[in-house]
What does this fold into?
Amino acid sequence: MSRERKYTFGPVPSRRLGLSLGVDVIPKKLCSLDCVYCEVGMTDKRGLARKEYLPVNEILAEVKEVIAEYPDLDHITISGSGEPTLNSKIGDIIRGIKQITNVPVAVLTNGTLLNLPEVRQDLLDADIVSPSLDAVSADVFEKVDRPNPKLRIDTIIDGIKLFHQEYKGIMWIEILFVKGMNDHDEEVFRMKQVLDEIQPEKIHLNTVIRPPAYAIAQPVGEERLKEIQKILGERSEIVGVFKETHKTLQHNADGQAILALLKRRAMTVDQMTESLAMRKENIIASLKQLDLGKFIKSYIFNGEEYYQAL
It folds into this structure.
């Protein structure tokens, strides 16, 4: 599509979801948490109010137009710039997408609103729902996820349990480990106890791999992640940067597709090349033009150059 995308980004290659088209249903950066590791940036206001923040008809129209360009999508993933379940029309969006295409719909959520019956009902038609659960102790939850003051981790865990009992699709739990915050044995063993009660289909273990909202958030080493995986058991797996190469898609390498990605998260040239299936030289040329127009900035993180929209 030639016009600027407002609600979709990618497709983004993912180890878990393959070639996935992202759908944003929340304004940046509306969330119930202010996680120290968030790649989207700091949360200005930790909101809990649910309403139709973005128009459903416009979102669905853009999704329909974009998926025509990408016949090989593996998933359509509702995630993006904030907590998607804050959009009170997320159920309509999920059902609307499923009327447009047979591509499975996944929802990535922080799980903070799953204690609400209406939120659980809204997500029942998704094919995959992946709540995050970075802590099970109140003090660790406060440290890592910096929640809205009204949120309680016990209530969130109860909501995840209730959802899994009601849900007929696939539920994964994602845990993002931050060095020195939630990676100690005491918390990990507490997580195992809670996860054994929830019984998700998979447990995905992640760490800080892109520039975080707060510099204090540092990655956990691979060896420690492997130790944690052993504790959490056979359902757990370490996920990371997608390394496989998708076949080249035939579409225009214009700056709008790049900006749509960089507005959501900082990325390297190689990550953009994989995500957009563009030629690397075309990405670099577009980045130069975007930089001249002062649409983007770049900086070094862990020895790699990242680009981000201004």
The chain has one domain: 8-244. Residues 8-244 form a domain with the TIM Barrel fold (CATH 3.20.20.70). The longest strand covers residues 170-177.
